[in-house]
Amino acid sequence: MNSLKLKVLLAVSLVFGSVSVFAQNVQLGPEWGENATQEQRFENAKKFNFYRDAYNSQRYDDALGYLPYLLENSPRGAQNIYVYAINIYKNKIQRCMDLKQRQGYVDSLFILYDLRMEYFGDNARYGRPYILVQKAKDYLAFSPMDRDGVRAVFEDAIKANENNPDPDFINMYFNELTTDYSNDLVETDYYLNQYDWLSGLLDKVTDPDSDAARETFDALFVSSNAADCANLERIFKARIEANPADASLLAKAFGLFVRNQCYSEYAFSVGEQWFNADPSAETAKMVSAAYVSAGNNEKAVSFLKAAFERETDPVTKAMFAVEIAGTELSMKNAAVAAEYASQARKLDPSNGYAGIILAQAYAEGAVNCEGFDRQTVFWLAYDMLAATRPLFQDGSAERKQIDETMAMFRKSFPTRDELFFRGLTKEGTPYDVKCGWVNGRTTVKIVD
Fold first, then answer.
1. Does position 8 have pLDDT exceeding 90, yes or no?
2. For 202-211, which contacts have Cβ atoms below 8 Å and span 24 or more sequence positions?
């Protein structure tokens, strides 16, 4: 008898029940006793039946009475020998108030898991990979203070399931590992290597329902404070060099760089590689946003234009055009800003921000001419804001900004004397503004 069996035998009481008649015409296989006679195998099977009946009746102490016999004489008879015993000991652990006795139950529980793996580890469905996962969960539940042990059993379980990784189970482990790292129980190198390994396993999962688990995994990593810029580059550089066109890997790496405000040259090279691998409007938008955060408006607007070109939804396309217009305006490119703001208004007439930026671009464009022609540009800009004003709710910040800007524009209108000198004495008379690139039809406006 091996030592594992012996420990279990010592942990339970020997209680035997009466024997009922068993069908003697059935030939039982060697799992019910490798070197046993048919009569002995029948006896072993009867003992299992009594064991099962006691378990199903919740007579757990009676059930445990049969366990030593079954482990000694037919350990391969049925996997439920171990399933029932494991459940019984879990019940006893949860109810036991004596710490010493409880620890004995815990020790027996994990011995039973090891025996189950010894005899049924090759089961196609409930073999070693499955058993190790259940053992790890129970180890965490019943021996949470043994941090080395928790990490070891989880790592064994995940390795056994590498071909079919479970994102939720990986997160269960990574949460414990992150806690240990935060409490200085594991070194940074170990933590980073585990992240790299587990991240690679998650990359194998194609089920869309696992996206939330991936987000949780990355959030844990970010929360650990181990995800600084140098460590991120260290983790992803080799992986990206090996798979330079892997869009999912590039997206993950760039996302982590952005979340940790890593705006290095390498981080942006990853972003641009990602766009090359996945040249979509969404990718371009994310890379652009990162360049905005880094203060590189020229790069930001180039990716915004790429997003604009690829977008097909007119409302979303209009928003890209507005962002481009605003960025171009901030770079003193008023003519380009006006072009994109005009496109935004055509794409989505309800987008009031396009009108605000277009009016501002007109006002900036007034520097292209002098005197009266320059002043009439503000008529055009004023009209644009007047047309845009109803698109925002009364009392909104945008409405307030529009009203203040309109009042400011009025101060730049031609004076009554200037209008009289040009024969423009009737308010509302049509007038064509021509000032460099700024041109359009407006009406004469007279201010006192």
1. no
2. 202/165, 202/167, 202/170, 203/248, 203/249, 203/252, 204/165, 205/165, 205/167, 210/167
